[in-house]
Amino acid sequence: MATPVPAAGFAGLKPGDCWCLCAARWKEAFDAGKAPKVRLMGTHEATLEIVPLDLLKKYAIDLS
Prior knowledge:
The protein is mainly alpha-helical. The protein has helices at 23-31, 53-59. The radius of gyration is 13 Å and the shape is globular.
């Protein structure tokens, strides 16, 4: 969960919240064993330059 920053009006993240994460940071989190789930349909195609589609699919929450 992200730390709250009241001065900026940010109450922090809680389970179930969504947020934007750049592909390079997602890959960094994956390499550290901490990759979050992704909304594949909301992921920009340029992400595929950094993260293979098969890997993203393993973390997708919006595939049936």
